[in-house]
Design brief:
Layout (H helix, E strand, L loop, with lengths): L3 H16 L7 E9 L12 E9 L4 E11 L8 E8 L6 E2 L4 E3 L8 E6 L7 E3 L3 E6 L5 E5 L2
Length: about 150
Amino acid sequence: MLNTAATAALALLLLTASTAPASAASYEYDRERACAGGSGKAGGCAPGIVVKHWHKTGSKARGVGWVYASTNPTAGGRAYHARWLYQRPGGKLTAASGWKRAPRVKGAGFMETHWGKDGRTGPQYPVHTKICVQIKETGKQACVKLT
């Protein structure tokens, strides 16, 4: 049998468990993609971008968890470097990272690099912020807008 103190503790535990919120805040996740200078198929992207972002349902802020850049090489064996940039609505284009080497993918005809990680990580920006990747050796960039 439970004593009075144990019974009261159990009752308090059950009461608080039943009055807790049914669920934590809901989050939505999305990916934006773009391909510059190619079809994205056999012609490839020069460069290409994928941005994985997240936000609380109903929020006007977007968290950028992951940015991916790729490009098709135009000269054999050449090293490529990439960086990502952002532009808030009405603002100026600003570098979010320094230049990072984009190594060739073994067995494939393109180079790639990325920043960040999956999950609710990374900087937050207003909706409609433009995110770009730029390839240093070509001066080309691909951009998406956070929706």
